[in-house]
Amino acid sequence: MPDETVDTLVIGGGQAGLTMSHRLKQRGVGHLVLERRRIAERWRSERWDGLMFQFPNWSVRLPEFAFPHSDPDGFSDTAAIIAFIEDYAAFVAPPLRCGVEVTRLRRDAGGFLAECAGGSIAARNVVIATGPYQRPLRPDVLREHPGLFQVHASGYKNPAQLPDGAVLVIGAGASGAQITEELVRAGRHVFLSVGRHNRLPRRYRGRDLFWWLAEMGVDETPVEQRGPSRLLPVISGAHGGHTIDFRRFAADGVTLLGRVTAARDGVLAIAPDLVTNIANGDAYYATFLGIVDDFIATRGLDHPGDPLARVRLPDPPCLTAPFETIDLGAERIGSVIWATGYGLDLYWIEIPVLDANGAPRHHHGVSEVPGLYFLGLQWLSKMKSSFLSGVGDDAALLADHIAAQTKGWNRIAPRK
C-alpha cells in the first residue's frame, strides 16, 4: 500500500516543475511537487562561477511573473537567475517537498507508484519535469590518463580550480566557447576542440538574436517542422553579449583543433574535420543573416544595415594547417574540460515509454501511457519549449489535458 496518494505528482522543482504547479493551481487540480535537492539545484551546483545567461534580460520571464532588471539588453549572472526562480516559487507557493528523490516510477492500479527514500506515493497522473540537462556526457578517450586534471563543464567552477599549464577544452558549444574566453582572459593558453556547431549572431541589425527569433516567429516553430540538426546554437551572454567567432579566438591566442578521436601515451589523435566544421558553422551563420535580411526587405522594416556582421578575419595557421596530433606533455596541457553536453537520465522510469536512446516517446509532452507527461524538454512541442519564456505554454496545455482527464479526482489525499 502507498504511504500517500495524490491526484497529480510533479517530479522536479526547477522552472518547469514550478510552472506546472502554477498551471495546475490555476485549474484547481490537486498536486504535489517533489524536488530531489533544492529549487533550481542545477543552477546552483552545476554551473561555473562566471556563467552569464544566454538570453537578454528583456526575454526572461515565467507565467505572470516578470524578471526584474535595470538593463533590458543586458545579460544576468547565475545568482540573479537563481533568485528569480526562488521568487517565482514564492509567487506560485507550490505544494513542494525538497530533498525527496524519486528512485523508481512504475505503473500501479489506477495510476502510478513513485518510490522515494521515505516511502511511496500513488498518483493518477505524473509529470516528469526534471529538465533536459540531467547526465553529463563525457567520452572515454582520456579515461585512463593519470596525472591529467579532467572535469566536465558541469563541475568546472573557475580558472583557479585548474592546475598550472595549458588547458584543453573539448567541445565548442555555448559552454565550451564561454569557458574558453574566460580562461584566455585569465591568461591561460587554451586548445579548443571544435566539432560540428551552429554559430549564430548575438546581435544583428540592431536587435538581439532572440528578438529576431520572436519577431519572425521562428521560436514558435513546431517540433514537426524541426530540421535534422540537433545542435544548440553557439552564443554567449558574457561581457555584454557578443557573437562567437572562432577566428577571433585564434587571434586572441587560442589553438583550434578538430575533434579528439583517440589517445595513446599522452598523444591525442585529431580528426581532419576542423576546416569543415568551421566552414559549416560559417554557412549556418550566413544563412541566418540572409533570412533576417529577406524578412526586413519583405516587411519593409526600418533596421540599419550591419556590414561588420559579415567581416571575416583571416584564417589562422591552426586552420590553414590543422594539427593531426597533440602531445599533452610537449604542449604542457595539464587540464581537460569536457564541454560535451548532457544526456537524459530517465531509466528510473520502469514504464515502457522510452525509446532505444532513453528519450521519452510523447506528443507535445503527452506520453503514450495515459496519465504520464513530460515537461521542460528541448523541442517538447516547439523551439522555445525549453526557454524560460516558453515552458509556460506547454505547461498550460498539459494542465488542460490533466484537468480534463481528472474530472474531480483533484485533491491531495491526507497522509496515512
TrEMBL record:
One of its GO terms (molecular function) is flavin adenine dinucleotide binding. Gene3D superfamilies: FAD/NAD(P)-binding domain. SUPFAM superfamilies: FAD/NAD(P)-binding domain. InterPro entries: Auxin_biosynth/cation_transpt, FAD/NAD-bd_sf. Keywords: Oxidoreductase. The keyword Glycoprotein does not apply. It comes from the Bacteria. It holds the Pfam family Pyr_redox_3. Coiled coil: none annotated. This is Putative flavoprotein involved in K+ transport. It comes from Bradyrhizobium macuxiense.
